[in-house]
Write a structure and sequence with these properties.
With 115 residues, this protein is mainly β. Helix content is 0%, strand content 55%. It contains no helices and eleven strands. The mean pLDDT is 95.
Amino acid sequence: QVPLVESGGGLVQAGGSLRLSCAASGSIFSIRAMGWYRQAPGKQREWVATITRGGTTDYAGSVKGRFTISRDNAKNTVYLQMNSLKPEDTGVYYCSADRPLGTDWGQGTQVTVSS
């Protein structure tokens, strides 16, 4: 398993920015990719962004151009820089780590964007 701890959520006005962090520990050598997902109230969890072991990134269409996923290998940490936030970005954001034996999830961090 790879324990994941998210931080950096909070309340921000529309148009503002937040940076989420996800610190990984344990069997980090087995991680193939890390990602961010979010879940709004009453909705299913949706994929937001991914960064692979090789550094390739990909984004959901709704956040492309506004969000940036990055990583600091020395700190075993993945970040999600969120700019130009919209009220529809509100939700609980979860970090994920994909391994050959399955996917690990963090506990989630709340992001609320007020209009």
